[in-house]
Amino acid sequence: MSTLTQASLHDAVASRCPFPPEDLRIVYGDIDEWALDCLRWLLPLAPEGVLEGGLATYYSTSPATIPTSLKIVRVFHADNLDTFTYLSPQEFSKAKVHVPASDYYATNEMSSGTGGRYGRGDRVYTVEFNKVYAYRLDDGDYIRVVYVDEPSWGGNTFVRNDLDEGEGTDYHSYRLRLGHTSSALSEPGEGADWNTYWTEIADNDGYSSWNGDSYPYTSSGLVIPTGWEHLVALYCTIQMAFKAKDEAVIDRLSKQLNSELMRFGGFTQFDPSPAGG
């Protein structure tokens, strides 16, 4: 895994862009959002070996709720590291029915047993709505879930700001789009240029208050698989071409991106569409 900085991404996109970004009123924050969109698409498709070093681990009893998971890679018993076999939700529900009737533990779906249909103790799991359901465990046992996490730009990226100028309060929360030194112009929700630097998100009272005293809001970068810098930059440049409504450039760059994906292997063909679509 490697770290892609905002500056290096912006330079890479600028070097590939066939038209001046300022003509499209593109702010660098848009490019940063497109990079996240690219990773949300590519990371779940990537071979596991490409992701080693960038996978996250979560310990929990079953069910385990992982709201930021893009893809569950594997599930283990936390203590003895028994590997759980993935089943579809339909297969998972049937697995409990097919435990031998003579098995005492069949009366408790969260109990351990032997001789299960899918191996030792019916070690199976399924995933529904970012929840991991594992069968069978002793009551209170933990599973270890290895997953692909939602990508994010690292750094002091979340703030909260009170937009009520009177005696009341009107708090809003924001996520950093572009590193900068704070000023009146960049005050989230208020400054003339605030949406260049911030994206409003659901309010969270756990975030620190915005600091307007020339405070450095920085991003430590975006963790990506080694060698993906070119893929991300190409994707972002294609999104810029969508802004420019230049079909010829979209077609040419999409062919380049598909050629790169073939070189990496394991990916489906890129069908160009605006980010988020």
Question: In words, what does this structure look like?
Answer:
α6 packs antiparallel against α7. The chain folds into three domains: 1-53 and 225-277, no CATH class; 55-149, no CATH class; 157-217, no CATH class. The protein is of the alpha+beta class. Residues 101-116 have low confidence and may be disordered. The chain is built from seven helices and 16 strands. The strands form five sheets. A four-stranded mixed beta sheet has the order 3-7-6-5, covered by helices on one side. Strands 13-11-10-14 form a four-stranded mixed beta sheet. The longest helix has 18 residues, at 247-264.
Structure, briefly:
With 277 residues, the protein is an alpha+beta fold.
List keywords for this structure.
4-stranded mixed β-sheet, 7 helices, alpha+beta, 277 residues
SSE topology sketch:
Layout: E1 2-4, H1 6-16, H2 28-42, H3 48-51, E2 56-60, E3 64-65, E4 69-77, E5 85-86, H4 89-97, E6 124-128, E7 131-135, E8 143-149, E9 154-155, E10 158-162, E11 171-176, E12 180-181, H5 194-197, E13 198-201, E14 208-209, E15 216-217, E16 219-224, H6 229-244, H7 247-264
Parallel strand pairs: 5-6, 10-14
Antiparallel strand pairs: 1-16, 2-8, 3-7, 4-8, 6-7, 9-16, 10-11, 11-13, 12-15
Helix pairs in contact: 1-6, 2-6, 6-7
